[in-house]
Amino acid sequence: xxxxxxxxxxxxxxxxxxxxxxxxxxxxxxxxxxxxxxxxxxxxxxxxxxxxxxxxxxxxxxxxxxxxxxxxxxxxxxxxxxxxxxxxxxxxxxxxxxxxxxxxxxxxxxxxxxxxxxxxxxxxxxxxxxxxxxxxxxxxxxxxxxxxxxxxxxxxxxxxxxxxxxxxxxxxxxxxxxxxxxxxxxxxxxxxxxxxxxxxxxxxxxxxxxxxxxxxxxxxxxxxxxxxxxxxxxxxxxxxxxxxxxxxxxxxxxxxxxxxxxxxxxxxxxxxxxxxxxxxxxxxxxxxxxxxxxxxxxxx
Length: 300
Ligand SMILES: N[C@@H](CCC[C@H](N)C(=O)O)C(=O)O
Fold this sequence. Notes:
Blueprint: E1 8-16, E2 19-25, H1 33-40, E3 62-68, E4 75-81, E5 87-88, H2 92-103, E6 110-115, E7 118-125, E8 134-141, E9 163-165, E10 168-174, E11 178-183, H3 192-200, E12 210-216, E13 222-228, E14 233-235, H4 239-251, E15 261-264, E16 270-273, E17 280-295
Parallel strand pairs: 2-3, 4-6, 11-12, 13-15
Antiparallel strand pairs: 1-2, 1-17, 3-4, 4-5, 6-7, 7-8, 8-17, 9-10, 10-11, 12-13, 13-14, 15-16, 16-17
The structure holds ligand LBFN2T5F.
Residues 19, 82, 88, 91-94, 177, 210, 228-231, 235, 238-240 line the site of the ligand N[C@@H](CCC[C@H](N)C(=O)O)C(=O)O.
């Protein structure tokens, strides 16, 4: 390898309710972003906290972030490269982590985040330099069931709502990325890693889908589990998935009105709104974990 490319880049590690990301400044030179993400996100051999304070290796993706200070509010250009090297158009928890990263570099508490699924406004509450998690809300846009937007295969007739597929009753919605949502009695009774791959790759989802399970809790909130496209496994949390649950619940008449709904993936609690008109919101905690340097051109 040329010595010029055998360099390291600095990174910071963040998580939002357990959905964890390596964050790299997009100004730093990473010649092959896919290879970088595949190597450093690996849960067995990937990025590690050298202090030993955090024992989970790897990550759910790499966020390449460009902060543009000259705008008011400042803009962040966000690109999420996933552990399989693919680029995701949007990531709810990633957007919340992007806002936390930017908040530590500015005095701003509001940011516009440019993603491939549009520009999202984020509001940060809390002290970016402090020990407590930040409380970050992202405006996620209007969820869509339109078959062209999900997207569904051209030969599918109309929206996919409460349709049986591979043993689950699914509703397909795009909340920045596509989700196939199933409401079940208890999310913990389903062998998600066993049932999800067939749905994730089903022909009806022309660009694939994340597979999200939800079950209703006694207080009216939902428990969540999501198998993510690009991670090709279950994650501790998925923000677009949490919004998809509330959007699908409203579409099916399980939820009414504009009030916030608690959605709890394994990694913590999120607060979601899906108003009858206007943008959905995703709110929850974000924590900085550790930082260091990583090979920009890792050997494969
Ligand atoms: N974890 C994310 C979703 C990331 C994108 C997804 N894996 C895809 O490829 O569609 C979130 O918090 O929304």
